[in-house]
Design brief:
It is built from six helices and two strands. Strands 1-2 form a two-stranded antiparallel ribbon. Strand 1 and strand 2 form a beta hairpin.
Length: 165
């Protein structure tokens, strides 16, 4: 086999190999998280279609909060770019699970009433000092104490739902 035949053989197979490599690299960057999916601080940013389940869409802000919570929970592991895909996948799983539970809760919402007094009691028992409240706001990616109360209300409603079921 001469040099000319090797060159022709290489030219024949080189284009398909390059195309496969480009497609694989593009898919890999999408899956593991290209830098475009990160904000200036290295955190993940939600860019994509909303999650829709049972006719309801998850708000982009809610999904971004889930991303932040999962990333914060895995902060020691999220130094590598490869963790971005795992974090997004985990956040989607949590979002779908929450949406499914909320859908079932809607069917029996009259049995799941939570009073403001119950929410405030839970808030004070979990986070007795203002410093602990502020730490929770930062950890959960929330902006106000009212947002924390809303999350605690959801948790209490879910507990009542589980007891009811």
């Amino acid at each position: 086999m001469g040099i000319m035949s090797i060159r022709k053989l290489a030219q024949k197979f080189l284009l398909p190999v390059i195309i496969v490599l480009v497609v694989a690299l593009t898919a890999g960057l999408f899956y593991i998280g290209a830098p475009a999916f990160r904000d200036g601080n290295g955190g993940l940013v939600y860019k994509g279609p909303s999650i829709k389940l049972y006719g309801k869409k998850l708000a982009d802000k809610e999904y971004q909060n889930l991303l932040n919570q999962v990333a914060a929970g895995m902060q020691y592991m999220s130094q590598g770019v490869g963790m971005a895909g795992f974090i997004r996948e985990r956040a989607v799983g949590i979002a779908v699970g929450n949406m499914a539970v909320e859908h079932e809760m809607e069917k029996v919402k009259s049995h799941l009433k939570v009073s403001n007094a119950e929410v405030n009691k839970l808030l004070k028992s979990l986070y007795p000092t203002q410093e602990e409240v502020q730490n929770q706001l930062v950890q959960r990616g929330l902006t106000s104490k009212d947002d924390l109360r809303k999350e605690l209300r959801k948790q209490l409603e879910q507990q009542k739902f589980l007891l009811y079921k």
